[in-house]
Every structure is written in C-alpha cells, then in structure tokens.
Amino acid sequence: MPEKMLQFIRLSQENPEKRAVKQRREDFSEIYRSFDTSHAAAQASRCSQCGVPYCSVHCPLGNNIPDWLKMAAEGRLEEAYALSAETNNFPDICGRICPQDRLCEGNCVIEKDFESVTIGAVERFITDTAFQEGWVKVPRPAHELGQSVGIVGTGPAGLAAAEQLRKAGYQVHLYDRYDRIGGLLMYGIPSFKLEKEVVLRRWRLLEEAGIHFHMNVEIGGNKSFASLQARHDAVLIATGVYKARDIGGPGAGLAGIVPALDYLVASNRRNLGDTVEAVDAAGKNVVVIGGGDTAMDCVRTAVRQGAKSVKCLYRRDKANMPGSMREVKNAEEEGVEFEWLSAPEAFLGDESVTAVRAIRMRLGLPDASGRQSVDPVEGSGFTLEADLVIKALGFDPENLPSLWDVPGLEVSRWGTVKVKAFSFMTALPGVFAAGDIVRGASLVVWAIRDGRDAAEAIKHYLAAKVSGQSTQAAAE
Ligand code: FAD
Ligand code: SF4
Ligand code: SF4
Prior knowledge:
By secondary structure, this protein is an alpha/beta fold. The protein has 19 helices and 16 strands.
C-alpha cells in the first residue's frame, strides 16, 4: 500500500539493521543489511517534501531527493531509480559510503527535532532493487561519434566522466595502472563498507557499453602521457592522490611501521582472492595513527584480521576528528580503543617496532583558519605496546609534471593539478582534470560530480573542435 508523505511525526527514524558485532568482527562483508521494501517505503514517507530541500542543496550532486523519496514511498521504484540515476552515476555506491551525516542527512530539515530521513539507505535500496529487477540498462549511445577521449584513472571521477561521454557517443578509452577498475573504491575502501561486487557490476555494464579499458597501464611508466595526447582528441587526468604523508621521529624507520594504503590495498587484494604478501594484524597489538576515514578503515580491518588489540591515536578530540562519526561509532562497537588528544613521539624496538611512546595533547586557540592549535602537555608521556603501527596521516598528489615529463602541466603549491574555473581544462589545450587530483583528498561523491562536470566541458570542447570554433573559447 502506498505510503503518504510527512510521516515523520508518526514514524521514528530507522536505519537498516547492522549485523551483530561478533559476526562483523569475523568477516569482511558489509555491516549494514539492506532495507526491505516496506521499511524503505515507510522511511521514505517520513520526508516532509520541503519547498527548499536543504538535503539536495547539500548533496554535491544536487540529487532530486524529495521526488525520489516520494516515488519510493509510493512503491514507484523503477521511476525512482530512473530519476536518481539522472544525477548520479553510482547511487548504490554513494548510498553506502557518503558521509551522509555531513551532507544530505545532516541538513535534512526534520533532523533538528525528529532525526533526519534515512536518505542514503533509501538511495541504496532503490538502485540495488533496480539491479535485481533488471532495470539498470547498459549506457549505450544512440549514435556513434568519431572523436576519442583518453581518461587516466578508473576511480569514481574517471568512471563517471567515461559513462557520460560514452552515452553521448564518444569513443572512450580508460587507462589504469591497476588490474581492476574503481581506484580507491576497489583497493582503498574495505568491503565491510562497500562490497566489491557493487563496483564490478558497473565494470561489466561500462564494458558492454563499448568503453575500452586498458588495465595495467601506468602513464609515466609503461606508457607516456605524450602518446595519449597524440592518440586522443581530448585527455582527462583523474589519477587521485596517493603520496602518503609520513611521520618522523626516533624509530620511525623500524620494521612493522607501514603506510595505511599499502595495508588496505593488500587486505582488499587478499579478500578478492589475489595472492599477495600482506601485512597481517592477526595476534598483534596494532596502533593506527590518524583520525580520518582511512584510519577508521585500518582499525576496523585490523579487528577483522584478528588483532590482539587495536588502538587509534589521534592528536585532537573526538569532536574535531575529520572522519565520519558513523564510522567512529562502528569502530567503537567493534572493540577499537581511541586515545584522543594523543600524538606519537617515538617508536621503540630494536629492528621491529615493539611500542609507541606518545604524549597527551591539549587544544589551544584557533588559528587564522579557525582550527584550534594542538599543544603537547608536558610530562604526560605514556607508552603503548605495538607490533604493528599503521600511519594514516593523509595523502598528497604526486608531482605529475615531472613524473610524466609534461612541464607545461601547471600545478598548485600543494601539487594538485590546476584547472580553469568551470572548464576543467588544465594549462595544456585539450587536457582536462577532475577528482582528487584537482581538489586534494576528498570524497567519492565529489569525484563523481567533477567527473560529470569535466565530461560536459569535454563535450563542448570536442563539439567546437569539429565545428572549427576556437576550442579555447569553447572551453571558457
Ligand atoms: P581514485 O579513486 O584515487 O582513482 C584514481 C585512479 O587513478 C586509480 O585507479 C589509480 O590506480 C589510477 N592512477 C593513478 N596514477 C596513475 C597513472 N600514472 N597511470 C594510470 N593510472 C593511474 N570517500 C567517501 O566518500 N567515503 C568513504 O567512506 C571514503 N573512504 C575512504 C577510505 C580510504 C582508505 C581512502 C584512501 C579514501 C576514502 N574516501 C572516501 C575518499 C575517496 O575514495 C576519494 O575521494 C575518491 O576515490 C577519489 O576519486 P578519484 O577518481 O579522484 O581517484
Ligand atoms: Fe546523500 Fe551522497 Fe546520496 Fe547525495 S549522493 S543524496 S550526499 S548519499
Ligand atoms: Fe525531505 Fe529532509 Fe529533504 Fe526536507 S530536507 S525534502 S524532509 S529529506
């Protein structure tokens, strides 16, 4: 029976059920179960159909949330799927891993008194149902165009751009140094947040649509950037950011201190059935340094690998950590201990690390950016046992101009690729860039948004090229 809207007064917020903690600690399957049809309809019906939907305003994709919630509440799921797919190439992925508490749901107007509508879970339900029912169609173009686009990177930015360009008829070639698509969706984010089949099913669709995937191809390694420029009418750089920020201090070079992404990639590969020499946390006292999403993924991976203890060391407090609160709560439930306001001073051990010496921190006055400084508390040192230390301190871009031998590619002082406002074109004509390599480490939903916008800019550029207009003017 179709649900009426504005049911937030009568129905309380319900999130999809989480699997029992004991089970979660033992496997890498997603922790949230999916809504069933009646729960999805009931939760969607809580929406008050705001005239100015702040949920949509704060969704980077501007998703038409109130309309697809209404359709879901009324059982019109195929229509809801079509509408949600118009603005989002991967609603099933965003529904799972967007930090909704900071985006759409955090800005839902009923949040204040009644707790937000569970937008992400409904979005995921709609698209998972569409896959089950066969409503998700191969994004084939209506007609073919002769021009080709080369895209470096198969993360969410590259994939979203590829799909948009292919739908318009362009010949799209994706290049990636990895053997599977998805970038951080495949090898960074663990499967307890995003099962890999959700990414792999997209790969099959995009291949069927006629997109050419060139895997195990590293630009600047076994293929030059110049060869891409020569082959394609336009090139998009969507390579993400991978240079891990490091930590110094006494003992920082000891064995057993590893970068977060190496640890996560190896774990993801192993779960995908690859034979890899992976650092394993089984039986170890693990200390993870950092407070972002990457640190949360590491602590929860270590729990599942059977670590003896897992501690997270973060120099600010819980309220000031950059990671999603939902993930912190999940980690706490799974047995991770947090040492808030604590920073490492030294790593102890002969050859391999055996302990971390740390010091308590206090929050000071805000700096020019408004962020509070952190200062060590004298005499507050303490020691944590550790046979595995994972450094999750964030990522910076590689120096692409020198790695790829393209000195004309302009980058910012942080190393991110500079693009012209709105055009996504770099300093090199016909070369565009999108996603983390432009923004710095960000979110999947922003990468999708950038990929879509860059695809629009490339379409204008290529259309102008055909009609003989100034391509520079078209790009601006
Ligand atoms: P990426 O996803 O990094 O993809 C870039 C691709 O380019 C990769 O496949 C890479 O192999 C390829 N590439 C790079 N250099 C070359 C080269 N020279 N030649 C060929 N190929 C190359 N965001 C969220 O919204 N929610 C989360 O829960 C979340 N969790 C995260 C957890 C971790 C551990 C990390 C590290 C990030 C997380 N993020 C999360 C951030 C999110 O994953 C990124 O913002 C997003 O993936 C960026 O997309 P992208 O397409 O720009 O780059
Ligand atoms: Fe919310 Fe992300 Fe979906 Fe937008 S894409 S509605 S921010 S979950
Ligand atoms: Fe519905 Fe909340 Fe969006 Fe308003 S802000 S339209 S109540 S989901």
